[in-house]
Write a structure and sequence with these properties.
The protein has one domain (about 5-100): Winged helix-like DNA-binding domain superfamily/Winged helix DNA-binding domain (Arc Repressor Mutant, subunit A, Orthogonal Bundle), CATH 1.10.10. Strands 1-2 form a two-stranded antiparallel sheet. Helix 1 (about 5-20) crosses helix 4. It has four helices and two strands, in the order αααββα. It is elongated and about 60 Å long. The chain has helices spanning about 5-20, 25-30, 35-45, 70-100, and strands at about 50-55, 65-70. It is about 65% helix and about 15% strand. With about 100 residues, the protein is α+β, with helices and mostly antiparallel strands.
């Protein structure tokens, strides 16, 4: 079954919240999203100020780009978890009366 965009956004935020700042390929593997889709999703999350891009300069003028969740991203992830748990409780409660009939 395919994931919705919202589910992919949440998966990316979860990975970044759990593992800290990561490079693109690490996010790709941990969130199970292909590279082109991940880049689009990260662009959206950066525009929404949920993820930030961090550049680390190393020796020989090499730079590495990491992505990290912002405080706003943590707040959105918290609200999503609360909403998800509330919907699961509502879903379970709606199934119980159906069994009594």
């Amino acid at each position: 079954m395919r994931r919705s965009k919202l589910e992919m956004y949440v998966d990316i935020l979860k990975v970044l919240a759990r593992h800290g700042p990561l490079k693109l390929t690490h996010i790709m593997y941990k969130a199970n999203i292909n590279c082109s889709v991940l880049k689009q999703n990260l662009d959206f999350l950066i525009q929404q100020n949920l993820v930030e891009e961090q550049t680390l300069h190393k020796k020989r003028n090499k730079k590495r780009v990491f992505y990290a969740i912002t405080e706003r991203g943590r707040t959105v992830l918290k609200y999503f978890r609360e909403l998800n748990s509330a919907l699961q409780i509502t879903e379970e409660a709606s199934k119980v009366p159906a069994l009594l009939y």
